[in-house]
Amino acid sequence: ASDEENLGNLKHQLAKLFEASLKTTVPNEQDLEPLIAACTGKFGDYQCNNAMSVWPRIKGKALPFRGPQAVGQAIKTNLPPSEMIESCSVAGPGFVNVMLSSGWMAKIILKMLNDGIATWAPRLSIKRAVVDFSSPNIAKEMHVGHLRSTILGDTISRMLEFSNVVVLRRNHVGDWGTQFGMLIEFLFEKFPNIEDVNEAAIGDLQAFYKESKQRFDSDADFKERAQRAVVLLQGGEAKYRQAWAQICGISRNEFDRVYQRLGVKLEEKGESFYNPFISSTIEELADKGLVKESQGARVIFIEGINIPLIIVKSDGGYNYASTDLAALRYRLNEEKADWIIYITDVGQQQHFDMVFKAAKLAGWLPAEDGKYPKVSHVGFGVVLGDDGKRFRTRSTEVVRLVDLLDEAKTRSKAALIERGKGEEWTEKELEETAQAIGYGAVKYADLKNNRLTSYTFSFDQMLNDKGNTAVYLLYAHARICSIIRKSGKDIDELKRTGFLVLSHADERALGLHLLRFAEVVEEACTNLLPSVLCEYLYNLSENFSKFYSNCQVVGSAEETSRLLLCEATATVMRKCFDLLGIEPVYKI
Ligand code: ARG
């Protein structure tokens, strides 16, 4: 996915140079992909690792090399001249180390400051993606797992959008299924007059769900009516559709309040949306000979998996898998997605694995990996409480997400007041900063972990102003902004007229880290790992601290250049915050 104008991505640019060199060095070896890795040793900033794997391939052929070291030497010699490279050396068994030119690095950073951070966006080979995330279930609780999916999905969408991919953000809400029979019947019972139904009258929808479930489990008559209601609803009976729509509407408002707070945009296309497409989907699969009968159900057998994928239940009803197959087909054929990403807890991994394999059997997706369109399941671990068990407030009750966000904000406001901001700031500033820090802390605590591992939810930890937390990072950014402000210089003017020089070792290290932004975002996108971006951001802030404690900025001979370096750091930090869905703070 390289591109000549992709100035930000050093790896891609070096890969191009080494590709040319490899062609000259070993002209008869086809499809050699340059292997470029960032390194941190004193010998170089990047290295090319091809020599070691090329050597066994050419050994014995009539080429003037003796051993991988000689191949490395030749790769080095044949490297086309480039202003980005300061020097090159061959080390060990044939590593070709590249030291970048500090002058070139400074030039590229200054260019980004003038042309905008978007010029450092990754270039991906996909154009349109569906990101299926959040996806809570109507009338059931939206729990911390859904929060995790929401936060991860939003960040993944933001990273892809930044990379100029058209992203269809899909909320695959659980708004269809047998539980609606019972909910509708219970609604009719409680509100004989349908006009009386509204959010206030229903109150807590989860409690409503529980109550109706109790009725369902204890009253055979009710159960029968509920089962009939499902049939009537699915048959499109107006009165039942209306009741269904009312219940969904109330639930939707509740979800929207959470999305609004988090600043997350989503388009709902719930399970019900795909219902009309299920029967034709199953017909197509059956025509292809994939559907078998098993114990009254219709299933697809998948090699290597010991349970079949049930797509029509023994009672003739459709299920989660039938909906997902119809949705997948829709996303491929109608929405023309070339990458479809599903974000749920790891517990659903097998479900997606089977759905994806079925789609490959049907020929909807290419059989080989690495071809498009492609699908990915982004699994994540559970959020734990202090007790090491699934996170809940009280022993039985799940955490209400809005309460959780409220608490994060309240706590960060208290911390600001303790720092004396109560007198210094207006109430509005206090509120806004508390919110940015509080919500940012919740998001960052979630995103910084490798998503596959479970993590413990702790306000104390996430709101700590030291260590790898949003608070620490937001403060660091605000401090940089205040250095620039206090210098009294017009930074936009400096961008146009000033020069950037990376002469001190800590200036250079910071500059190099800034320049790695593009390849890090690309890696985070390709591997769907927001934690990679968090780690980058944290290291950026560490690099900055080191620079700032060893290099005087304001009042020094290098002031202009160093202010520009501050501005570049703040710019990249803000882009990271933006990709992580975190609101930056400008003063502390
Ligand atoms: N509603 C599901 C749940 O709460 C998640 C749906 C994920 N998306 C999908 N296409 N299956 O577990």
UniProtKB/TrEMBL annotation:
GO terms for cellular component: cytoplasm. Keywords: Acetylation, Aminoacyl-tRNA synthetase, ATP-binding, Ligase, Nucleotide-binding, Protein biosynthesis. It holds the Pfam family DALR_1. InterPro entries: aa-tRNA-synth_I_CS (IPR001412), Arg-tRNA-ligase (IPR001278), Arg-tRNA-synth_N (IPR005148), Arg-tRNA-synth_N_sf (IPR036695), ArgRS_core (IPR035684), DALR_anticod-bd (IPR008909), Rossmann-like_a/b/a_fold (IPR014729), tRNAsynth_Ia_anticodon-bd (IPR009080). Residues 473-588 form the DALR anticodon binding domain. GO terms for molecular function: arginine-tRNA ligase activity; ATP binding. The keyword ATP-binding applies. Transmembrane segments: none annotated. Residues 12-100 form the Arginyl tRNA synthetase N-terminal domain. It catalyses: tRNA(Arg) + L-arginine + ATP = L-arginyl-tRNA(Arg) + AMP + diphosphate. It comes from the Eukaryota. It is an enzyme of class 6 (ligase). Its EC number is 6.1.1.19. Gene3D superfamilies: Arginyl tRNA synthetase N-terminal domain, HUPs, Isoleucyl-tRNA Synthetase, Domain 1. The keyword RNA-binding does not apply. GO terms for biological process: arginyl-tRNA aminoacylation; post-embryonic development; reproductive structure development. Belongs to the class-I aminoacyl-tRNA synthetase family. Forms part of a macromolecular complex that catalyzes the attachment of specific amino acids to cognate tRNAs during protein synthesis. This is arginine--tRNA ligase. It comes from Cephalotus follicularis (Albany pitcher plant).
